[in-house]
Amino acid sequence: MNKLLLVGIAIIGFLSAAAILAPFISPYEPSLIDSASLLMPPSYAHPLGTDGLGRDLLSRIIYGARISLGIGIIAVGISLCIGVIAGSVAGYFGGLADSIIMRSADIMLCFPTFFLILATVAVLEPSIINIMVIIGLTSWMGIARLIRSEILSLREREFIQAAKAIGASHYGIICRHLLPNALGPVFVNATLGIAGAILLESALSFLGLGVQPPVPSWGNILIESKATLGVAWWITLFPGLAIFVTILGFNFIAEGLRKHWGYNA
Amino acid sequence: MLTYIARRLAGSIPIILGITMISFAIIHLVPGKPTSAESALNPKVSLQVRERIEKLYGLDKPIHVQYLEWTRRLLKLDFGRSFSDGRPVIEKITERLPVTVGINVLSMFFIFIVAIPLGVKSARSSGSWFDTSATFFVFLFFAAPTFWVALLLMQLFCITLGWLPISGITSLDFEYFTFSQKVIDIVRHLALPVFVSCITGLAAVSRYMRTSMREALQQPYIYTARAKGLPERTVLYKHAFRNAILPIITILGLSIPGLIGGSVIFESIFALPGIGRLFYEAVMMRDYPLIMAEVVLGALLTMAGNLIADIGYAYVDPRIRYAKKVS
Question: How far does CA A24 lie from the centroid of its chain?
Answer without folding.
Answer: 25
